Amino acid sequence: MITFPCCPSKEKDSTNVTNSPTRGAIRVGVTVLWQEPAQGRDYDRLILQKNNDPAAWAGGMDVDRRLWLVNKAVTTALLGEPVIILARRGEWVKVAAVRQKTSIDVRGYPGWVPKDHIVSNDTYNHDLATRFHVVVMDRTTGIFKNPGLTDQLIEASYMIRLPMLEKNDQVITIRLPDGGRGYLYRGCTNMVTDLHFSGAGIIREAKKFVDLPYIWAGTSAYGFDCSGFVMRLYQSQGISIARDADEQAWAGTAVAMGRLAPGDLVFYAGKGGVGPIHHVAMYAGDGMIIHSPNSNFPVSIQALDSPPYGEEYWGARRYFD
């Protein structure tokens, strides 16, 4: 019996499509998308305020605070992620996170965020469409105000992706969502065009996060849920997959248990493996998986058939050749 839920539930989005939707981007390091506006606790001011602090918010939560997020938070989005604004309600906006694929809404994963976490800037939108993109490969790193990298502007999470303006041997100049410039140490980044799948590589990426506490709806280096973890790992290989575990399980190519290779996704379902899918992990080789289990456990490496998940094995999918 699994006592701690690990994967968000979902419903089809019924927001009307506008003729000319407003496009924007996330302007803070990480923001939570909520099922309903103004749903946070007093504690969540750390993540809800205009210039929020996702590290302090995630780091200050015990198991009970993490469990409170279940069915209230729906996903998280990172600095620079493009969004479509779907609706407005007071100090909140409903957005679709364009890079997070879902059947809920073809435009992107929907949820409510504080309006101060969204910015619409023509320069950023232009550079997003026309320039090469750079992506953060370190667990976290600083984005700086100056090319000397001495005055940090914001902390950047793993897989933050931004347009590149210039680069030299040490520093990459990036376009920020508000139209300004920022500077990254080149050694902690990669060009999106250089990303490619490697079984050994994706497992190395996953191991960066061993012992990171789970966060329901998390997709950042401050905490992942099970499907957010594998979604970001596949992004690190230049592959875009669905946001949620049940949809991840119906794409790719089916793989028999005896033919699993590092990087394959393995899925677990209720009713002894024949019910609804509720968890995803990544096969790490030698009969082991790496995954973000649930609110009571951090990112871990364990045997494929270890309880409680081993008793609910559903199948596996492969997203690479």
Return the average pLDDT rounded to an integer: 94
Structure class:
alpha+beta
Low-confidence stretches: 14-19
Strand element count = 22
Assembly form of the protein: single chain
Defining traits:
321 residues; 3 domains; endopeptidase fold (from Nostoc punctiforme); five-stranded antiparallel beta sheet; alpha+beta; 8 helices; 16% helix
What this model shows, in words?
By secondary structure, the protein is an alpha+beta fold. The protein has 3 domains: 22-120, no CATH class; 131-194, SH3 type barrels; 233-318, endopeptidase fold (from Nostoc punctiforme) (Alpha-Beta Complex), CATH 3.90.1720. Helix content is 16%, strand content 34%. It is built from 8 helices and 22 strands. The strands form 6 sheets. It has a 6-stranded antiparallel beta sheet. Strands 6-5-4-1-7 form a 5-stranded antiparallel beta sheet, with no helix packed on it. A 5-stranded antiparallel beta sheet has the order 13-12-11-8-14, with helices on one face. The longest helix has 10 residues, at 226-235. The radius of gyration is 19 Å and the shape is globular. It starts with 21 loop residues before the first strand and ends with a strand.
How are the secondary structure elements laid out?
Elements: E1 22-26, E2 30-34, H1 45-48, H2 54-59, H3 63-68, E3 73-78, E4 82-89, E5 92-97, E6 109-114, E7 118-119, H4 122-130, E8 133-136, E9 140-144, E10 152-157, E11 161-167, E12 171-175, E13 181-185, E14 189-191, H5 199-207, E15 219-220, E16 223-224, H6 226-235, H7 245-248, E17 253-255, E18 265-269, H8 270-273, E19 277-285, E20 288-291, E21 300-303, E22 313-318
